[in-house]
Design brief:
Helix content: 40-55%
Radius of gyration: 26 Å
Structural class: alpha/beta
Number of helices: 7
Order of helices and strands: EEHEEEEHEHEEEEHHHH
Largest sheet: 9 strands, mixed
Shape: elongated
Length: 292
């Protein structure tokens, strides 16, 4: 694995100011961008507290920044340092430009509530990549009870030749959604998931749902037999077709087939765990080598 080009330095102060009605800047964000950010947060590495990435889009004639796409940029950060995989960012941006040259770099995003000292460093990097980038934050931790989405612009506060801090000012944000996307976004706001379930957890959840459905069918059939519920021929035919479609296996054959499948899943989980560990160690060694 090639050593990534990194940007690492100490974190500087960041000042957060409320939005101002006199500000001429605003942002318009497509729903797919929010879904991409939330999906990347759920799939983040185990050690990462947040994810960051690049925003793509265009600047409209009235100065509104229209964000239409996004991709994650690998990074690592501590209390006073931030390291970005700049080579990965440049490769991804070049690939996007080949597909859609009209989508240019307009800013960057991060998960979490508000801005921090580390955000100042990352914003400085994107300020060298594009003029006046915006910073989009998505509160995937539901700090205020919902997944709030905010956009900021930054300017430097200086005293003479001395740089004091970065001033982040919130700007108006318009989230564009179709009716179907609004339904998905409302479900997303009401559901908080820290990590995606692995294969075994997903199988366990599926089996629990299957047991619950089978119990409902048992209760329905018992109610029909006891004449507590009027029979429905359509439902009866559907249940009969479902039962007849099941392969006829003896209990011993089913146990053997199920156990073989479990062993295969456990082997895949073990190999993927080894792979993730090797990649994590390689990334830490590469980052340490770049810093030194």
């Amino acid at each position: 694995m090639a050593a990534p080009e990194t940007s690492a330095c100490g974190a500087g102060p960041a000042l957060l100011f409320p939005s101002s009605s006199s500000s001429s800047s605003s942002a318009r964000v497509e729903a797919v961008v929010v879904f991409t950010i939330c999906d990347s947060f759920v799939r983040r590495p185990d050690q990462a507290e947040r994810v960051i990435g690049t925003l793509l889009g265009s600047v409209l004639p009235d100065g509104t920044v229209h964000v239409r796409n996004a991709y994650v940029v690998p990074h690592s950060e501590s209390a006073d340092q931030v390291a970005l995989d700049i080579e990965y960012h440049h490769n991804m941006y070049a690939s996007h430009q080949k597909v859609n040259p009209k989508e240019v770099l307009v800013g960057w995003f991060s998960t979490g509530f508000g801005v921090s000292g580390g955000s100042t460093l990352i914003h400085e990097f994107y300020s060298r990549e594009v003029q006046s980038p915006i910073h989009l934050t998505v509160d995937t931790g539901f700090t205020m009870g919902e997944a709030s989405i905010k956009a900021y612009v930054s300017s430097n506060l200086s005293l003479g030749d001395r740089h004091l801090a970065a001033q982040f000012q919130e700007i108006p944000l318009d989230l564009k959604m179709l009716d179907a996307e609004k339904v998905g976004f409302e479900m997303l706001k009401s559901t908080m998931v820290e990590k995606l379930p692995n294969d075994l957890e997903g199988m366990e959840s599926s089996m629990q749902k299957l047991y619950a459905l089978i119990d409902e069918i048992y209760k329905y059939v018992d109610d029909i037999v006891e004449a507590r519920v009027a029979p429905d021929n359509k439902i009866g035919r559907f249940i009969a077709d479902t039962v007849s479609s099941m392969p006829k296996l003896s209990p011993a054959s089913f146990d053997r087939l199920f156990n073989d499948k479990i062993q295969d899943n456990l082997a895949l989980v073990y190999l993927s765990s080894i792979t993730r560990t090797q990649i994590a160690v390689a990334e830490k060694l590469n980052t340490a080598a770049q810093v030194l």
